[in-house]
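So, who can interpret the following?
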Amino acid sequence: MQRATRLLVIPSISLLVVTVNVIFLLCEVDTAKAFVTPRSTVVVAPSPSFALKVLRSPVQEEIASFNNNRPVVATDANNNSSLDGQTKSSFQLLQESINTNNKKQTFPLLEGLYEKMGTVQDERIIFPEYQAGDVPRIFSSLRYHKSEETGRISAQHATGSVLGAASLVAGTMVGAGVLALPAATAPVGFLPSTAAMGVGWMYMTMSGLLIAELSINRLGQSGKPGKGMLDMYEDSLGPRWSKIGSLAYFGLHYCLLVAYIAQGGANLNALMGMDGWNLPSGVPQASFAGLCALGLFQAPPSVVEKVNNIFVLALSCAFVGILGLGAQTANFASLIDPANQHPEHTLDAFPIIFLSLVYHNIVPTVVNQLEGDRDKITKAIIGGTTIPTLMFLAWNAVVLGNMDPSVTNSIDPVALLQASSGSGNEILSTLVSTFSSLALVTSLIGFVYGLLDGWTDVFKLPTEGPGYEKWKTPLFGLVFLPPLALSLTDPDIFYKALDVGGAFGVSTLFLVLPPIMVWKQRYGEDQQPLMTKPMVPFGKLPLGSMWKAAGTLIVEQGAEKLGVFDWFQHQFLS
């Protein structure tokens, strides 16, 4: 009955939002004016160049520049002008050009809709050569090399590669979120969840391109590379509204650390056989958090990076092995059976889907690595997000294909896959355990560093040197102790924490705030100068679609977790 309630309420809300937006757009277009007012009407203004500025085409620009310094144009009610012969001839030529061009415009309403999608004028572009592609990058990265023969130091261009940047994006996406993905998509079915993954990929890729656009424009305006997400929130939204972004940033990081510590403790407990030790509850989680904190505290960042690279390589090998062995026992016929498809549950899967596709915190780094080259950045983001998404679909197919659809709502599919391998395939069981543990550790490392950077920004602390060492212990305590305490409150908090992080943290940080910031930057009243034109096409349409879809998800998930649907069912449907 609760599901029926949601099926009634959510489409009603969505239909209302769509209807209001269509009415608003049509009202903005002013249909009466579009159909009644002649498009060739001349606007009365002090000079020809200003009067016809809105109606000029590239050919008319040349004519207008010729008349730019001519005398003032005066027009009466009949649209007659009092110009001398030469100026009148030029002005008439301009009018004829406009009238000829307007005869070809047979869909004024569609043109009005196109205009309302929003455009960025060429005059706002700071560096036209960059926009045209004549100069592909904004700056050049240098690498200094000392010759062993002469001892002289030379500077060399150290450009980043698209492959390297795409690998960084892909490596960031492949994290512990993939462990919860089958549990989220199992009640939905493989086919609807695949479609949902496609929608999620589209939105999260567009969001990454919007963040890249913000980074490029900020780089062109300030001339300083290295702006992070929190800096962009403050620059674009101001101190007051940027606090929403900061709150979502820290909330997401802590939600994920809660999940990672809880599941990491469970994995450590299974690995060490702690169940027979008669230890107090919470010891495995505390041990896992303590080991991770001690390792990251003592090891230099260079060592952590090398160890993390080894873990990522081992994780990739385990993933390939899982797909190869799991595909041999998967029931793919059951996977696509119409009886096992439940699209009415799709909305519940989106928080975990969005969480699994997160990579956005490294987009400013990608922009800096590729020196602001817009084409390379676009290829790196699209390519770097496509490969992990295909991997997730394959992972989903193997996991769901190896389970009985009748137990999808009661058992974790990953745990079921691991348990089922015990009857005849110990290798698969070991690979699943290895993949799970490595995914947790590699993801935890990145989010720990993200929290450390965030708190050093908040407290205005140095990021290295004696000043940082002085505050290093309190910072690590601030990072690890709160999520450890929360992970001890519920043994099943792993999925719950990821679900909350995806529904509220990811949706706010990467699907609500970026389109709002880009909207303000492109179409704000201040008309601020820009480095690049939109990197996501169709103007305002994708921007509005992103934040409204994410807003609907936030409202729906919030209502469900607060019990609004249960209350509605009790009050009106029982």
Summary: The chain has two domains: 33-127, 162-536. The domain at 162-536 is CATH 1.20.1740.10 (Amino acid/polyamine transporter I).
